[in-house]
């Protein structure tokens, strides 16, 4: 999703090139609206802010709120669909049924007029009923105040929580026999956490220059090459890119490396 | 922070609800890195069953559910109560022992959990008293919620004792006395709520915006052109985008 944000505006701008005379204004509004939202999202990702960047964010949000009427007709919910159906049924019911005596050309004209009226009423209804009263729209208003009061927003990311699930909860779940799983999850988490903390402590001690016994150092070397992030990365992206672990074939086959590479 | 996670679809949709803690003093780069083990699992809660809205027995069960959640969180927060007020000596990384006041600062969770923990309804915000019909407007005039008042009154004496007669708990979208954060020292429950980029922007508004754009393009007959341009985007290092968003 984050990457889509980077390119959606340019793609949209290309897709909307050479507008017709009637399309000129809606296209401009749509582009402006999308641009404001994308700018807002990009600025909200900043790690540090000045007063100027916060005013930029506010401006983008105001522009977005001013221009989002262009997308109002696409915010049609189930509730509104039900109302539309009701209105259509009402119109059909009201229509006069004495059409048999009218000439075909006149009947066609009447039908066209009725259809036009129907679409007009429909659009009116949609514009009256649809709204942007989402909780997510309102949450944006508080971003600026929050930055002023507490600092940048990526700091409070929930993404990390999702990542921690994999190691903390799901690893334990996969290892458990699904029989009273929460106990097993907590147990395996405690074991892993204990070992990891021990390793981190030893690692930091070695960095400080404390003398450790040689076998501890040797074990640290082994574990530090196989630290945890390798596993999640492989899980997430589904590919193996650790070339360093591959055996040196030239030594195994006892041939010069130039021969293999040739 | 707390976040429900999905474990399996089999054996009655198992989910887990971990509650984690971390330190606010850590740099965000360090505390957000999985290897540094900065986030500790504090509790693993079972998920309460979902209840239908209508019947009276479910009302009773719902009350029990809310009370249980509140009691569980009281248990979780119990070790925090005294140190928040008086402070405790803590061994710090530089080898010194310092007098620390651990305070619950933010609660990082998505919206559905916030409403469960703050005891509010799903279409209002934990932070301010904004009615649901004006969420789309860009206004900030509404006052910040005061959970102390909500906690103080029952439903009956809310009507009797507060002077504003037209403001009821329903219109503010709260369930009285169900906030789990109330009662902690030096903590204002309305400040605990933090904006959440992932759920609000990336998974929320961005998705909505793609729907709007698709509708708009369909109306003006430019959807084909949009797809063509999207397909023609060259791959680039550090730039992954999903083709699955494309139509067809």
Report on the biggest sheet of chain A: none
- Total beta strand runs of chain B: 5
Q: What overall geometry of chain B do the principal axes of the alpha carbons give?
A: globular
Q: DSSP helix count of chain A?
A: 13
Q: C-alpha Rg of chain B, in Å?
A: 23 Å
| Helix and strand element order of chain B | EHEHEHEEHHHHHHH
What is the secondary structure topology, with strand pairs?
The complex is a heterodimer of chains A (262) and B (248).
Chain A: H1 2-15, H2 24-44, H3 51-67, H4 78-94, H5 104-129, H6 135-141, H7 143-150, H8 159-175, H9 181-208, H10 214-225, H11 230-237, H12 249-253, H13 257-261
Helix pairs in contact in A: 1-2, 2-3, 4-5, 8-9
Chain B: E1 5-6, H1 10-13, E2 15-21, H2 28-31, E3 40-45, H3 56-86, E4 88-91, E5 97-100, H4 111-118, H5 147-152, H6 155-161, H7 169-172, H8 189-192, H9 197-220, H10 223-231
Antiparallel strand pairs in B: 1-2, 2-3, 4-5
In short:
Chain A has 262 residues and is mainly alpha-helical. Chain A has 13 helices and no strands.
Give short descriptive properties of this protein.
heterodimer, A: 262 residues, mainly alpha, 2 domains, elongated, disordered C terminus, B: mainly alpha, 41% helix
Structure description:
The complex is a heterodimer of chains A (about 260) and B (about 250). Chain A is built from 13 helices and no strands. Chain A is mainly α and about 260 residues long. In chain A, helix 1 packs antiparallel against helix 2 (about 25-45), helix 2 (about 25-45) runs antiparallel to helix 3 (about 50-65) and helix 4 runs antiparallel to helix 5 (about 105-130). Chain B is built from 10 helices and 5 strands. Chain B has helices at about 10-15, 30, 55-85, 110-120, 145-150, 155-160, 170, 190, 195-220, 225-230, and strands spanning about 5, 15-20, 40-45, 90, 95-100. In chain B, the strands form 2 sheets. A 3-stranded antiparallel beta sheet of chain B has the order 1-2-3, with no helix packed on it. The longest helix of chain B is centred in the first third of the chain and has 31 residues, at about 55-85. Chain B is globular. The relative contact order of chain B is 0.10. At the A-B interface, helix 1, helix 2, helix 3, helix 6 and helix 7 of A face strand 2, strand 3, helix 9 and helix 10 of B.
């Amino acid at each position: 999703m984050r990457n889509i944000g980077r390119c959606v505006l340019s793609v949209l701008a290309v897709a909307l090139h050479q507008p017709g005379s009637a399309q000129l204004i809606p296209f401009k509004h749509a582009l402006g609206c999308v641009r404001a939202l994308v700018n807002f999202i990009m600025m909200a990702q900043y790690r540090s802010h000045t007063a100027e960047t916060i005013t930029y964010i506010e401006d983008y949000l105001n522009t977005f709120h001013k221009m989002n009427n262009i997308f109002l007709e696409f915010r049609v919910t189930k509730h509104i669909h039900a109302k539309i159906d009701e209105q259509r049924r009402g119109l059909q019911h009201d229509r006069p049924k004495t059409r048999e005596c009218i000439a075909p050309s006149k009947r066609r004209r009447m039908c066209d007029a009725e259809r036009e009226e129907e679409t007009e009423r429909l659009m009116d209804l949609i514009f009256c009923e649809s709204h942007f009263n989402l909780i997510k729209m309102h949450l944006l208003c508080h971003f600026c105040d929050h930055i002023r009061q507490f600092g940048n927003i990526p700091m409070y990311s929930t993404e990390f929580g999702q990542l921690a699930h994999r190691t903390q909860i799901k690893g334990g779940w996969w290892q458990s026999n699904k029989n009273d799983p929460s106990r097993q999850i907590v147990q395996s988490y405690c074991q892993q956490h204990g070992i990891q903390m021990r390793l981190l402590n030893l690692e930091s001690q070695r960095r400080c220059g404390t003398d450790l016994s040689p076998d501890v150092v040797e074990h640290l070397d082994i574990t530090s090459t196989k630290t945890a992030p390798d596993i999640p990365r492989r899980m997430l992206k589904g590919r193996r890119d650790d070339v360093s672990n591959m055996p040196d074939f030239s030594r195994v086959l006892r041939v010069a490396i130039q021969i293999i590479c040739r | 922070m707390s976040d429900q996670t999905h474990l399996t679809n089999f054996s009655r949709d198992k989910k887990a609800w971990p509650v984690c803690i971390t330190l606010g003093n850590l740099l965000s780069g360090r505390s957000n890195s999985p290897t540094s083990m900065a986030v500790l699992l504090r509790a693993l809660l079972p998920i309460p069953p979902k209840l239908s809205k209508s019947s009276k027995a479910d009302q009773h069960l719902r009350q029990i559910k809310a009370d249980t959640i509140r009691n569980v969180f009281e248990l979780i927060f119990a070790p925090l109560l005294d140190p928040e007020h008086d402070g405790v000596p803590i061994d710090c990384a530089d080898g010194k022992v310092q007098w620390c006041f651990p305070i619950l600062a933010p609660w990082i969770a998505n919206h559905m959990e916030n409403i469960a923990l703050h005891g509010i309804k799903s279409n209002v915000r934990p932070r301010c008293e904004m009615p649901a019909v004006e969420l789309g407007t860009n206004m900030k005039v509404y006052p910040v919620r005061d959970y102390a008042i909500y906690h103080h009154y029952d439903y009956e004496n809310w009507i009797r004792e507060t002077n504003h007669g037209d403001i009821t708990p329903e219109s503010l979208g709260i369930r009285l006395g169900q906030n789990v954060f109330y009662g902690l020292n030096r903590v204002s429950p309305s400040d605990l709520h933090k904006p959440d980029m992932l759920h609000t922007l990336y998974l929320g508004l961005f998705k909505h915006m793609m729907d709007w754009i698709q509708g708009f393009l369909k109306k003006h007959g430019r959807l084909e052109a949009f797809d063509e341009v999207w397909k023609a985007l060259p791959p680039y290092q550090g730039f992954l985008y999903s083709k699955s968003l494309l139509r067809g």
